[in-house]
Amino acid sequence: MIWYCFRNFYRNSPGDWVASTMELWTKISEVLLRMARRGERLGAIFNSHHPPERTVAFTIAVIALGAKLAKADGRVTRDEVRAFRAIFKIPAHAEKNAARLFDLAREDVAGYEFYARRIARMFRRDNAILSNLLEALFQIAVADGGYDPAEDAFLRRVSEIFGLPESCFRKIRSRFALSDEFDPYEVLGAHRGDSIESIKKKWRKLVMANHPDKFVGSGLPEEARRMAEVRLATINRAHDLIRDGAVS
């Protein structure tokens, strides 16, 4: 999620965080003005002689990727746009520019792979950030109550570009009940030959790491806690299936 990724750029006090985000969106506004003057398309800014700085480039690439995903099934619903705004926590003062970016990205000739590659280069070997971003994209995909094959192909390809293992893609997809191939052992990072005690230890570790209470008072948005609830529900479901002998 974008708030999680930004914490790797700004590791300071909440006051500095607010100032930093305001500065970021001021810079994005300047990029949009330059684009308008030159008559450039959104993707062109990454190939210019003066590409945007890293934080600006990342924000633009993430918004563009979310916009491309919302359009992947051939339509953009209000639920998807609402989910995008909630998940990526766009500040009130930046909503106008974020909406403009979203619309520019939907119409940009550059495909989603172009933006996915930009993000992958910024966070090479940082699977934690990339998997969190992939999870946020899944939330946008299912916001309209469905999950189209085109969206599945989109997200699978993004996962590949990010360099995430296939098991990571399947694990995230299973959190949203999007596949009949739900593998509780995979969710817990366990193997079918593991002892019950070993599996229980893995389950407890995952529960501690993903419990929603960790987000209370953390300064992170409400959406972070909600996503943790989804993860925890999947983890508990996997544990219960194994404990009850409901899987072979």
* SSE series: HHHHHHHHHHHH
Query: Measured on Cα atoms, how large is the radius of gyration?
Result: 19 Å
Determine the fraction of residues in helical runs and give it as a percent range: 55-70%
Count of helical stretches: 12
CATH topology of the largest domain: TerB-like
- The backbone outline, from C-alpha atoms, is elongated
CATH class of the largest domain: Mainly Alpha
Task: Give average pLDDT, whole number.
Answer: 78
CATH architecture designation of the largest domain: Orthogonal Bundle
* Count of distinct strands: 0
Structural class: mainly alpha
Largest sheet: none
**Count of distinct structural domains:** 2
What's the end-to-end separation, in Å?
34 Å
Poorly predicted runs: 6-18
- Sheet-strand content, in percent, reads under 5%
Give a short summary of the structure.
This protein is mainly alpha-helical and 248 residues long.
Report what the structure shows:
The structure is a single chain. With 248 residues, the protein is mostly helical. The protein folds into 2 domains: 2-178, TerB-like, CATH 1.10.3680; 182-248, DnaJ domain (Helix Hairpins, Orthogonal Bundle). The chain has helices spanning 2-6, 14-38, 54-70, 78-87, 95-107, 112-122, 127-142, 149-162, 166-175, 184-188, 196-210, 222-243. It starts with a helix and ends in a 5-residue tail after the last helix. The model is unreliable at 6-18 (pLDDT under 50).
